[in-house]
Amino acid sequence: APDLLHRRDGALRMEGVPLTRIAEAVGTPFYAYSAQALRAGYTALSGAVAPHGVDVCFAVKANSNIHVLSEFARLGCGMDIVSGGEMARALAAGVPAERIIFSGVGKTEAEIRAALLAGLHQINVESPAELEVVAAVARDLGQSAPVALRVNPDVDALTHAKITTARKDSKFGIAIGEIPALYAAAAMRPELNMVGLAVHIGSQILDLAPFRRAWAAMAGLVRDLRAAGQQVGRLDLGGGLGVGGDGHSGPDLAEYARIIADTVGGMGLALNVEPGRWLCARAGVMVARVIYTKPGDGADFAIVDAAMNDLMRPALYDARHAVEPLAPPRQVGATTPCRLVGPICESSDDFGTYQGLGPLQAGDLLAFRDAGAYGAAMSSTYNSRDLIPEVLVDGAQFRVIRRRVGIDEALQLEQPGPWQRAG
Ligand code: LLP
């Protein structure tokens, strides 16, 4: 994907729009996404894997704004969803039901019913108990539900412990050893249409070797099932492709595609991947303003108007988002490092210590990079803060795609209901 941020006359721009223009229009903090970068990302990834017969479904959880979804949908991208809410978003963005896969370890009966009524492409089932609910709902609706079993292949994704999902002790998927019996029993039931298998080993994966291990294990499982007489038509390879930064150039798409071809190619399987982060992280920034500076021990504090409720990743995963000042730094060369912290009353409300931002002053604007994935989507109103605006940039234009949700609206939600007598 092209570098979406560049400077002209010193001012940091996203595509043709100076980010300060957006700050004037919507106030800070805010998220901005480059439509061109979203489209270029999808085109690059799908261009790398499509020749190997691999379909791309965007993991909606990474950025669920319907205008972001519709950028992908218009290019023919499918979607991977994990809730009834995400299903509603994908459908609202114009994604056809038959392009949607439903993942997740805790789908409720109501969500499963809605999915079957909508006619989704596939339900990735994660437990025998869930399989029973899918079967019961499908029977009730007179349908044969398209089911894939999500496999836990017991592979370490070699990423942050909070975003690894396929070790033996993980809550996700069904242990690989239990699949053959479960698959065979399910295939006998008319209300279940056993279409194949799914796997997802974790997120922000930069070393591609774990993918090879997991997919090789899946290929073996498919062969075993077929040898036992089962039909296995589809394989969902999951998401997890990481993005570079902090000195890492990011994974090579050609290598990613080659690993797919090496492990599960040529088996007559309909393949798909479900990347979230890779498709949208780099397309987005979060812009914040310095409220105060104060001297600190080893680094000077800059207290910014964005906080852990707006961008949780540093607090939750020790993630580091590179920061660019919207105006060129005041001083080049060695200056005191800046520790960027938010206003929330928690020590973990800390974005980290940065070199080269120069001495910051109140009013300075900063862009946090790679914030297009798991940024706005994970935000909250903790400390009774606003949900901050999201803005889409396309060429020389920009528009608000989610307005600021402030305290007036939040207070509306707290209109009390009537007291109800219990017994
Ligand atoms: N498929 C399934 C079944 C998933 O659980 C996930 C992510 C994805 C696909 C997409 O993974 P991706 O390609 O984005 O890595 N909040 C964390 C990431 C959590 C990912 C959860 N599952 C973060 O900000 O790093």
Automatic annotation (TrEMBL):
List of residues binding substrate: 277, 313, 317, 346, 374
Entry-linked InterPro entries: Ala_racemase/Decarboxylase_C, DAP_deCOOHase_LysA, De-COase2_CS, De-COase2_N, Orn/DAP/Arg_de-COase, PLP-binding_barrel
Pfam families tied to this protein: Orn_Arg_deC_N (PF02784)
Pathway: Amino-acid biosynthesis; L-lysine biosynthesis via DAP pathway; L-lysine from DL-2,6-diaminopimelate: step 1/1
Catalysed reaction equations from the record: meso-2,6-diaminopimelate + H(+) = L-lysine + CO2
EC number, as in UniProt: 4.1.1.20
Class in the EC hierarchy, top level: lyase
Assembly behavior: Homodimer.
Protein name: Diaminopimelate decarboxylase
